[in-house]
């Protein structure tokens, strides 16, 4: 694969990886009361809702534009592992097992993105080193 093709593939991959977080954060806004209740049933304080929304949307946007990508990807990898453990650990339920594995897969993808960086079509690539 040539460098130009790789650049486009990396940009598309970043968008696809970030989309779930941006949409998830936006959907939490429209169902804030229900999400607070759900978080409380899982043992989390309700005040974490808005920081979670800002985190999901913010890191998702950073990944899409490729700004501070390695940091954002590392944070999202950790977020995926923590949310897998908290929200998807009922392994007797096959749907929860699949969701757990989905989170592990996303964590792996973000770890890889943190390792290789965002590619040439990114804000990080356009920044002048100081």
Protein model, in words:
With 130 residues, the chain is an all-alpha fold. 78% of the residues lie in helices and 0% in strands. The chain has six helices and no strands. Helix 1 runs antiparallel to helix 3 and helix 3 crosses helix 4.
Specify Rg, calculated over alpha carbons. 16 Å
Report, as a whole number of angstroms, the end-to-end distance: 31 Å
The total count of strands amounts to: 0
Helix residue percentage: over 70%
Q: Please report the number of helical segments.
A: 6
Structural class: mainly alpha
Summarize the structure.
This protein has 130 residues and is mostly helical. Helix content is 78%, strand content 0%.
Which short descriptors sum up this protein?
130 residues; mainly alpha; 6 helices
Explain the layout of strands and helices.
Layout: H1 3-30, H2 32-41, H3 49-65, H4 69-87, H5 94-116, H6 123-126
